[in-house]
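Narrative of accomplishments. A recurring question from our advisory board has been how the design workflow behaves on a single, concrete structure rather than in aggregate. To address it, we present the structure tokens for one chain from the evaluation set, followed by the sequence designed for it. No filtering or post-editing was applied between the two.
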């Protein structure tokens, strides 16, 4: 059970880092847009792409989390 906890922590850490990196893209675009005086207009064209990539990362996270849970159930049954 301890092995599953460490695997889950590694998974959470990996996706937390990924989400923070994904958050950096719109913040960078917003900073550049504000420095040029365009306001938030620079973010608007990229919103669909950003939502698509964020949705894909979330889907992958849920998929890996479910696989980890099913792996834990399988190893629990084998030990009985």
């Amino acid at each position: 059970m301890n092995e599953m906890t460490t695997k889950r922590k590694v998974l959470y850490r990996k996706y937390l880092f990924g989400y923070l990196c994904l958050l950096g893209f719109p913040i960078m675009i917003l900073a550049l847009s504000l420095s040029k005086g365009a306001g938030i207009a620079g973010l608007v064209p990229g919103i669909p792409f950003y939502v698509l990539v964020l949705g894909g990362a979330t889907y992958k996270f849920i998929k890996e989390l479910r696989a980890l849970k099913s792996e834990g159930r399988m190893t629990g049954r084998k030990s009985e």
